[in-house]
Structures are given as C-alpha cells and as structure tokens.
Amino acid sequence: MTPTRAVMGPGSFGRLAALLFFVEFARCAFIVSFVPVYAERFAISSTAVGFAVSAHFVADTAVKIAAGYLLDRMSPGLLLHLSLGCSLAGIGVAYFGSMPETLIAGTVLLGLGVSPVWLLCLSRVTPESRGAQMGVIYTMWLAGLGLGPLVTNLTLELGYGVSCGMLTMMLGAGWIAGLRWSRTASAPPLASSAFVSMREQFVELRRKLAAMRPLLPGMLLQMASAGLLLPILPTFATQSLGLGLPQYSLILIIGGGCAAACLIPMGRWADKYGHATFFTIGFGGMAVSLALLLFAPPFSGALFIAAFLGLSCAAVFPAWNALLSRFVPAEQQGTWWGVLSSLEGVGLMAGPAAGGWIADRFGAKTTVTVSAAILLAIALLYWVKPVKSDGTERRFSGGKP
Does the global pTM surpass 0.90? Predict the structure, then answer.
C-alpha cells in the first residue's frame, strides 16, 4: 500500500478532506472578506459586523456537542446534507437581506451548518495514521483559510453577486464531494450511552474528562493564546514592525504556506516518533517565534520568523489532535469530538476580548508577549510532565507510540 493510500484510506477520508476544503474556503471567505465589505453597501455599522462574526463562532462552538451527539445516533450522510443546506441558507439570508439582523442571522446559520463537518472528519481518523490524517485535515483547513479570502477579494471587484455566486459554487462543490462520500459511509454503531440515563452519561463524561485532565490546560490555553492575537495582528505588523499591508500579506502567505506544506510530513513523523514530542517542541517554537518578533526584525528576518512559526504550528496541530483522539471512545466519536471542540472553542472565544483589552491598556507588544508566555508555559508543562495516554507515549522515545 502506498503512503498516500495508507493515509487517506480507501477513498472515503479523501472525499471528506475535499469537502472540508470547500466548506472552509466558503466559510472563511464569507466571514473574513465578504461580510465586512458587503455590510458597507447598506451602511451597516462595524459594531454590527463584529457582532455578526462573533455570533458565527459562538454558534459554531455551541452546536458542536449537540452535533456530535447526533452524529453517533443518525446517518452521517443525512447530518451532512442538513448541515450543508443550513450553510447555503445562511449565505442566502445574509446576501438577500439588507439589515443587521439578517446579516447576523446568516452568519449564525453558516456557523451551525459548518460545525458538524469538522466532527465528521475527526470521527473518521483511523488509529493507524492518526498524525498523518490530522495533518491532512489541517492542510485542507489552512488552504481554505488562505485561498478563500484571497479569491473573494478579487471577485468582489466584479460585483457582490459574482462573489456570492462563487461562494455558493464552492459549497455546491463540497456538497458533490459529500454525496460521493455518503454513498460509501457506514452508519455509526449505536452508542452504548443510548441505553443509559442522562445522569449516568453525565457521570461517565465527568470521569473521562478527569482522565484527560493533563490535556485540559493545553486545550484551553493554546486557543486562548491564538485568540489574543486576532484583534491586534494588523496593528502590530504596521506599527511595531513597520510593515506595509503588502509586506504583511506576504508574511501571512509565507507562514501559512510553510505550515500547510509541512502538516502531512509532520503528522507522519509524529506517528513514528511520538506525538507528545512533536507538540511540545512545536509549542516552544511558536513561543520563540513570537518573542523574536518583539525585537522588530527587518523584513527579511520577519519572513524567516514567519516560516519558523508555520513550521512550529505544523508540529503542533496534527500531533496534538492525534493524541486527543486516543481518549475518544470508538463508539462515541461524534459526541466526544463535539465536547473537545467546544472546550477548545471556549479558549478561542475568550482570547480576542482579552487581547483587545490588553492592547488598549498596555499596547500591542504586551499582547504578543502574553501570548508567547502562554505558549512557553504550555511547552514547559508538557516537557516536565509528558502526557501519557496509555502508558506508551514517551518523550524522545524514538519509537512508534
């Protein structure tokens, strides 16, 4: 079996990965590029736009547990088609409406629709290729995250209708990939929790979360550290680093491109040499990268740091989620990935508000410093106390866990 086929499996996972790319392309393009520009057409305030974007991520996070619960108990194909239909409805409501309320309603519907797609992908990761398949998932996410806003910025020059039509076509392409996948997707096994009371399920949930306690700080803090930077990155780049917008865009492309290119090989190496090793080094590399930016390097130095930051992110993402997957019961993958994604979403929701407040009070550099300090603390925590899921994960073990 070729390495690519070993990672993708017999076609099913590859179609899901393609679906994730199309959905993330449309979602990121709509939220990052289309909504802020389209709102100006109807003189919708920036406050309303900000609320719409926040409402999108709140809806995305809030629905994950319910979506995961349903994923374990209904046809995954049916859930997928309901989700994509909700996503298309969200774009339509936002486009054909002309008020802040319809814009917010559209972004919320889009958040509700795209949330189950992540859970579908995560629930299909196989134990034999955890890291590599997580690398594929995050590669598709980064590709959509980068290409979506870029292409939308170009199509907006041709008109709002053209841009919205392009986003609808991307969701349609994802739906086609989903149709092909749902023909081969097997129904989930009936979860054992379906036969016990809600109280017993809650007790079991608490017990398993207690077993995962060593991972909880990393789950919350890594997303919070990323969220801290969201409201201040453009300001930090232009004021602290002295970069123009074209230079800032190039840095984002270099960092994101390096991460996307390295995710799959990093995932394979993490499968071979130990997941805890890779995400511990990756967290440390991310902290060092942010710290180096505080010294206002020249543009060439900033490009190098962006590449190193992307490499560090590639070491973290697949290895971290591969280790998380070890704690997910095989018969309740949807429910548990929903729980874990919601916990990570709490950190992401709290981070931007805290980052903006710190920047207003103490400056953007202080926000970057706090983010770097959090990442360094995570790296040191897992260096001193390596995470063991089943007694086989060893720091620098040199063998396959």
Answer: no
